[in-house]
Amino acid sequence: MLQIHARSLAEHGGIEGVREPGLVESALASAANTFHYGGGDLFDIAASYAFHLAQSQAFLDGNKRTAVVAAMVFLARNGVYAQPAKWELYLAMIDIAEKNKTKSDLAEIFRRSASENS
What's the pTM? Predict the structure, then answer.
């Protein structure tokens, strides 16, 4: 996750640093819990990564960008091609950070974009 964050900052700029390492670990653990106990599919797990990274604000900058890239990398590494519209992801991540959208909403965006691109 730290490599994804560093790459995002290198590409788009921002303040380096982790606000609270435990928050990054917690976001990763939430995704693992979705896999082990939540009965979710790959889209639910990807959404868990993005949702918890965006809401926790674990990094000093680039939280939403890191969250999106983490979810997309997870899906790609699991053989899923999802290509949500950039504007839709942007708005969704703003809504998640402001607590106006759920993990399920984000999972549906990923799920829908994968089926549209199949």
Answer: 0.84
